[in-house]
Amino acid sequence: MTAIALMGAGRMARVHAAAIAAAGARVATIYDPVAQAAEALAETTGARIAASAAEAMADPQVEAIMIATSSDTHIELLDHAVSLGKPVLCEKPLAATFAESRDFVARVGEAAARRVFLGFNRRFDRGHASVREGVHAGRIGRLEQLTITSRDPAPPPLEYIPRSGGLFRDMMIHDFDMARSILSSDIVSVTAHGSSIVDPDIGRLGDIDTASVTMLTRDGTIINILNSRRCAFGFDQRIEAFGEKGMLMSDNPRQSGFRAFTAETPGTDAPILEFFMERYGPSYTAEIRLFLECARDGRDMPVNAIDGLMAAYLAEAAAASLKRGATVHLTGPDQDFAE
Amino acid sequence: MTAIALMGAGRMARVHAAAIAAAGARVATIYDPVAQAAEALAETTGARIAASAAEAMADPQVEAIMIATSSDTHIELLDHAVSLGKPVLCEKPLAATFAESRDFVARVGEAAARRVFLGFNRRFDRGHASVREGVHAGRIGRLEQLTITSRDPAPPPLEYIPRSGGLFRDMMIHDFDMARSILSSDIVSVTAHGSSIVDPDIGRLGDIDTASVTMLTRDGTIINILNSRRCAFGFDQRIEAFGEKGMLMSDNPRQSGFRAFTAETPGTDAPILEFFMERYGPSYTAEIRLFLECARDGRDMPVNAIDGLMAAYLAEAAAASLKRGATVHLTGPDQDFAE
Amino acid sequence: MTAIALMGAGRMARVHAAAIAAAGARVATIYDPVAQAAEALAETTGARIAASAAEAMADPQVEAIMIATSSDTHIELLDHAVSLGKPVLCEKPLAATFAESRDFVARVGEAAARRVFLGFNRRFDRGHASVREGVHAGRIGRLEQLTITSRDPAPPPLEYIPRSGGLFRDMMIHDFDMARSILSSDIVSVTAHGSSIVDPDIGRLGDIDTASVTMLTRDGTIINILNSRRCAFGFDQRIEAFGEKGMLMSDNPRQSGFRAFTAETPGTDAPILEFFMERYGPSYTAEIRLFLECARDGRDMPVNAIDGLMAAYLAEAAAASLKRGATVHLTGPDQDFAE
Amino acid sequence: MTAIALMGAGRMARVHAAAIAAAGARVATIYDPVAQAAEALAETTGARIAASAAEAMADPQVEAIMIATSSDTHIELLDHAVSLGKPVLCEKPLAATFAESRDFVARVGEAAARRVFLGFNRRFDRGHASVREGVHAGRIGRLEQLTITSRDPAPPPLEYIPRSGGLFRDMMIHDFDMARSILSSDIVSVTAHGSSIVDPDIGRLGDIDTASVTMLTRDGTIINILNSRRCAFGFDQRIEAFGEKGMLMSDNPRQSGFRAFTAETPGTDAPILEFFMERYGPSYTAEIRLFLECARDGRDMPVNAIDGLMAAYLAEAAAASLKRGATVHLTGPDQDFAE
User: What is the ipTM of this complex?
Assistant: First the structure.
C-alpha cells in the first residue's frame, strides 16, 4: 500500500482521500492549517497529522504527495515537493495565476514539470476517455471538428465570481485541457465570444456566464467550446469529435436505464448524472491509480504541469480575445497579453 | 403502367389506390356496390366504373386485380379472380372465417393459393423487415426467443367487438403472420392467456382486450406475443428477435428527431408514429411494388393465401387454448378445435 | 384544385410537381427552354406546355406561380410574377448574387417582397419546426445558445465549386435562415472560421469545406453554425436551442426503429435518413400547403424575399469575416463588404 | 458505526463487506470455517475472527448479523440469529430447498419472518426501483402487463447445473421476486415453457437454458418473464410495466455516454454494464443502508423471509408447470407439487 502525504483536508482533499482508499493506497500524513479539518480527516483515514506541510512530505514512509489545498498555495507546495524528488499530484489549477504557472515551469524546467501530475480529472471520465482513445486510434481518421459543451447546473455564489479569475480561467480551463488531450496538432488561434445573460449581476462584476470559443489548429481542425453557468436539466458535459470517417460522441450518462412513456412524455429518460461528484467521482480513482502507476515506473505523467500551463495559456488568450473583440494568434506561453 | 382492377372503394380501397399511384401503376376499373364511393374514387384515379366485379376484372386492359372489400366477400371475389388466371392481391384476412379459408385453399389447391398475394402489409414495415432479413441472414445465429408487442392506441367501438371474431382473429393475426415470417421452424404449440381489463364491457361481450400468447417451434424457439387494445402513448408495435449472437429489435419509430430537455423531463423524445396509416402507410407502396414485380415474373407470392390460412389457424388455436385454459398442440390446419 | 404555373422542368421542378400533387393542387402550365424536360413533366402532370414563361404565368386559369429554374433566372421571373400580382413561390436562393437580391427588394419594395414565398424548405422539417415552435412558445425561456450542425454526405463535384458562390452562400445559407427563424433578436456580429481539409482541391479553388461561424444577437444570444462538405455516416442535420429553462434538440431522424445488439455493436441504430430528398422530401408538401393557404388569404408569406435577402446578407458577412480574419459588425443589408 | 457480525468470508461476503464500509458501518466479527478466507477478510476489514458462528453473533458489540455463506447453511444460521433477537440480513435464497424455507417460516412465525431481511438485491437497482416506485405511485394507473427479461452473459459451468436446482430456482427466482415487488394483486396461475437450445449438455443434465413463464394475477394483470443463460451483448436485465396511462421501462444502463457514428455503425452505444457486480454492485450499499435503517427503527424488513418463501414457491410452481406441460393454479405455499 503506497503511503501518501495529503496536503489539505477540505472538500477536495476528502474526495482524494476516498479515491486513495478505493485505489488501494493509504494516506500516511496530513497537513491542513485548519486543525479541525485535519483531525476529522485523520480519523477516517488513520493518517498522522503533521505539524507542517514540509514535515508531512518529509516523513520517510511517504512515497508520494498529493496537493489538494487552495489554489494560491499550490506553487509553494509544488516547489517543495519537487525539491524532495517525490512523485506529486496537484489538484488543478497549477497556480492561482498564469504568470505563476509560467514561472514555475521555467524554474523547475520542462523535464521536472512533466513529472508533476496535474489533476484534470475529467480526462478520466469513461465516455470522454473513449472519445480521446478512439480519435488517437484513428477510428474517425483525420479530426476535422471538435465540439465541447460544458454547462454547470447553476452559477456559483456571486461572491465567488470576483476571485474566480473569470469563466475562462475557472470553468473553461477544463475544456481547454480536454481539447488539447484529444488534438494532435498545435492550436494557433483563439476567438472568444461571451455574454452575461444568465445573471446580469455576473456581468456587473465584470464576468460572463455564457461563452463560445473557437480555436484553429495548425493543420486546420476547428474546435468549438460552449460554456454556460446554468443548465436547467443538470450538468451538461458533452464532446463531439468529427472526422473523415465519422463521429465519436461522449453524451451525458443517465442515472439509470429508466424510461417513462406516457401520453404527455412519450419516451423520457432518467435524469443525467448530477453535479461533478456523481458525474466525475469515479474518475478520481482512475486518476490516482494512473498517478501511482507512473510514479512507480518513474514515467512522465500523462497529464502534467505543462498541460496545466498550456490550459492556463489558452484561458489567458480567450480572455484577451474577448476583451479585444478579436482573434488572438498564439505564439507560445511566453506571449504577452497586456495591451 | 400496369392497369389494375380495384374491388371496393371504401377506406382500404382508397389507401390502396394511393399506393398504386405511388408505385407507378394505375387503377383501370373499379367496382363497389355503393355507387357514390365508386364515383368518388373514380374521379381521383381516372378509373372506369364497372357494372359488376366480374366485369371490372374481365376488362381486357386489366392485368392485375386488387380486392379491398369487406372480409365476407373476399372468397367469392378470389374464386373469380383465380378462375380468370390474373394475378390478385387480397386485403387481409383471407376470409371471414377460418373454415372458409381452409375450404378456399383446398378448392384451388396449394399451387394456386401461393399465387394469391395476401396483404399482411406489416411485413413491409422498414424496421420489421430489417429484423426479418437480419434473422434470415444469420446475424444473430440460431433464433432462440422472439417477442412481438402490438398495442393499439384505443379499443375499437364496442359495436365492432361481436363481429370482430375476437382479439386473436382480428388483431393478433398480424403478429401470428409476423412470427411465421421470421421463424424458420414450424410452430408446434400455442398457449394463450387473456384478460378484459382495459374495458369491462369488452369482457361482457365475451372478448378480451389484453393478451399474451406463447408458442414453441419444433426446434425449441420460444415466441411471446403481447397485445393490448389500448396504449396511452400511441401505436406500440415492436419486435425483439434474440439469438445466439445477439438481438435485433424493431422499436417504435418517432415522428421526428425532436427531443426536449427540461428540469422535469430531462430528455423526452418526439411522439411515436401515430395509428396505422402513419406507421404502416409507406408499407402499402412497398407491398404493391412487390406484388406487381412477382406478378410480372409469374413467381409465387412471398406472402400468400397459405400464409393467410396459417395465421388464421394460429388465431383459431389461440382462441381454443384460451377457452380450454390449456396448451394446444398443433397438428395442421385440418385440426378440429370444436370440443 | 389550385392551378399553378411551374417555371422549370428540371430536378427541383419535378420535386415541386410531386409536392403540388400531394398538396392537392395541380400544375396547369409549364415552361422550360429545354423542350424535352418540359414534355416529360407535362406528361406526368397533365400540364400544358407554354411557349414562354410569360405566357405560362399569364394563363387566366393560373392562380399561383412557382419558380424552380436555375438561380440566375430567378429575379427576371420574379419581377414578371410580381408585376402580374399573382402569388409566387421561388426556390432558394432569391438571386444568383447578393447585389441582385438587394436590388430586387429595393425595386419591388418591402411590402411586395413579403408576398414572395422563398423556398427555404428546411423550415418545414418536422423536427426543426418543433424546435422553432418550442422556442417561440417559451418552452426554454430566454434563448441563450443556438447551435446548428449541417454536414453533407459528400462534397459536390469539383467543377461545381467555382460557380457555387462558396460554402457560406451555397450551403450555410440554409443555416443562416434557420437561425433567423428561431431567433427573436437581431444578429449584430458574424465571425467565420474555415478550413479546406476534406479535399485540398476545394482549397485550391479558393473555397473551404469545413466551417464554423459564431454570431451574436443584440440581446446576447450566441449562435454557432458548423458545416462540413462530407460526413461518413450520412446527412447530419441537427439543431440545439439552449435557454434558461432547458434545451430543445432536433436530432437526425432514423430510417426506421431498427436496432442491432451484438457483441461488437451492443446497440446500433438504423442509418439516419439519407440525402436531402429522404430527409427533407416531406417538407416540400408542407411548404406548398402553407404557400397556397397564405396565397388564398392574401397574407404575407411566413418565409419570403426579405428572409432570402437577410440570409444572403449573413452569408456575405461570413465570407467577408473569413477573408479579413476578423469579426464583422452588421449595420444592415446596405452594408458594403468591398474592402 | 453499527457493528456487524459477518457469517462467511467468500465472494458474496467480500461484496457485503465492501458495501458495509460504503454504507458507513463496520464488520466487527467474522466467522468462516475456511480459516484462510476469514483471515484475508479480517485483515482488510479490521474485524475479529470468531471461533464459531454462534460466538461471532453473540459478541456484545454486535448489533446486526449478515449471512453470506453457502445456501445450505442459511437456515441453521438464521434460526440462531432469530433466537438472539438481533436484526439479520440473509443472502438469497432463504434456504437450499423450498421445503426448508416453508418449514423455517412455519417455525419462527410470520411476524419474525418479516423481520429477516432477505437479500434480493436487484430490488435496489436504480432503474428497477424507479419502475416499482412509479407503478406504486400510480404513474401508469392500473398495471395491465408486466414483462421482465433476464439474460446472463454466459451459462454457468456445467458441473454447477445439477446442484443449481434448475433455471427457475436458481435464476428466475430473482424475477419472481421482482414481479411480486411491483404487483399489488396476488398471482393465481403459473405457466412455464422452456428449451435447452443454448447448450444441449444443459438439456442432457435435465435442465433448460431458455425459458418463458406467464403468470396471471387475481385482477387480470398478465406477467411474462423471459430468461436465457446466454446473451452475446452482455447482461440483459430489463423490465416493462404497462398500464392504462402508459409504460415504465428499466432498460440496460450503459458503461458511459459514448457513441460512435461511422458508415457501418451509424450510431452505436457504449456496451451495457457488465456482469452482476458492475450492474448491481451499487445496489448492495443501498440494500445495507435500508437494512440498518429498518433494524434501528425496529420495523419489518421491506424484503424479508416471506418474500423469499413466496419467490421460491413461484419457482416450484414453474418447475411443476414445465414438467406437467400445463398451467399450475396457485393455492398457497402449502401447495403440494408432488404428483
Answer: 0.95
